[in-house]
């Protein structure tokens, strides 16, 4: 994507009612007006909030919003030029239960109050295999602690990935932490008991993976209450 096109998308994002772009000051001072107020202040209802972290073009968030109108969906990504596509589609199709938040996932607990979120989806994250340290891996212990903070006590996390490494790493970590793994499968399209929200929605890249017979893995888990 050319820089001209990116700038055009950034400018359009600023005009979209379904896009939130906090300033760094708001994030680090924990002062954003929507923190603790996403239901009433942004979605104008009291329905459950579901985050998609690292939402890319926003396909999954938009399609989940269509499939589950009784829930609110928020795609989170630092790359606004990417999720512009999902935001524009949502506006064109008058989807009022989906929005997009431009921020780093490392800062997620600065923008949501404790127990404000009902579910988290992590779809096809970079497994960060090449890093000796795991600090950028979205299911490392530090990230899990952030998710636990903003999720309700019975809140659920979904991890869908084409990376067997990421799948195995996450399962191993969850077992070690004694968290509650509700469902796990290394090939969700190779079984007839996969949850429908996992197989009924596909991203563009996911469909490409399936064309070359790449397996898609899935884990659904909850945190132990302390």
Task: Write a concise keyword list for the protein shown above.
alpha/beta; 226 residues; 9 helices; Rossmann fold
Number of helices: 9
How many angstroms separate the termini? 46 Å
CATH class: Alpha Beta
H/E series: HEHHEHEHEEHEHEHHE
- Can you list the strand order of the major beta sheet? 1-4-3-2-5-6-8-7
What is the number of beta strands?
Answer: 8
Q: Main β-sheet, in a few words?
A: 8 strands, mixed
Question: Under CATH, the topology is which?
Answer: Rossmann fold
CATH superfamily: Vaccinia Virus protein VP39
Radius of gyration: 17 Å
* Total number of distinct structural domains: 1
The averaged pLDDT comes out at: 93
CATH architecture: 3-Layer(aba) Sandwich
Can you give the helix content as a percent range? 25-40%
What class would the helix/strand composition place it in? alpha/beta
Range of strand content? 15-25%
Commentary on this structure:
This protein has 226 residues and is an alpha/beta fold. It has one domain: Rossmann fold (3-Layer(aba) Sandwich). Helix content is 36%, strand content 21%. It has nine helices and eight strands. The protein has an eight-stranded mixed beta sheet with strand order 1-4-3-2-5-6-8-7, with helices on both faces. Helix 1 (3-15) packs across helix 5. The longest helix has 14 residues, at 164-177. The chain starts with a helix and ends with a strand. The model has no long low-confidence stretch (mean pLDDT 93).
């Amino acid at each position: 994507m050319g820089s001209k096109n990116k700038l055009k998308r950034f400018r359009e994002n600023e005009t979209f009612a379904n896009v939130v772009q906090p300033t760094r000051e708001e994030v680090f001072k924990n002062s954003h007006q929507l923190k603790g107020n996403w239901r009433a202040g942004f979605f104008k209802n009291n329905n459950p909030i579901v985050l998609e972290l690292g939402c890319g073009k926003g396909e999954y968030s938009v399609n989940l919003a269509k499939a589950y109108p009784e829930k609110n969906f928020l795609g989170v990504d630092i790359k606004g030029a990417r999720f512009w596509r999902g935001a524009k589609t949502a506006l064109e199709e008058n989807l009022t239960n989906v929005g997009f938040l431009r921020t780093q996932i490392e800062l997620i607990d600065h923008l949501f109050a404790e127990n404000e979120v009902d579910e988290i989806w992590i779809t096809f994250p970079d497994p960060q295999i090449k890093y000796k340290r795991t600090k950028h891996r979205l299911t490392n212990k530090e990230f899990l602690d952030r998710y636990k903070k903003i999720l309700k006590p019975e809140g659920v996390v979904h991890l869908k990935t084409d990376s067997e490494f990421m799948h195995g790493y996450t399962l191993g970590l969850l077992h070690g932490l004694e968290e509650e793994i509700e469902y796990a499968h290394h090939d969700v399209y190779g079984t007839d008991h996969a949850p429908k929200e996992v197989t009924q929605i596909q991203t563009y890249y996911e469909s490409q993976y399936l064309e070359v017979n790449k397996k898609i893995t899935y884990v659904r888990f909850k945190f132990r209450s302390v």
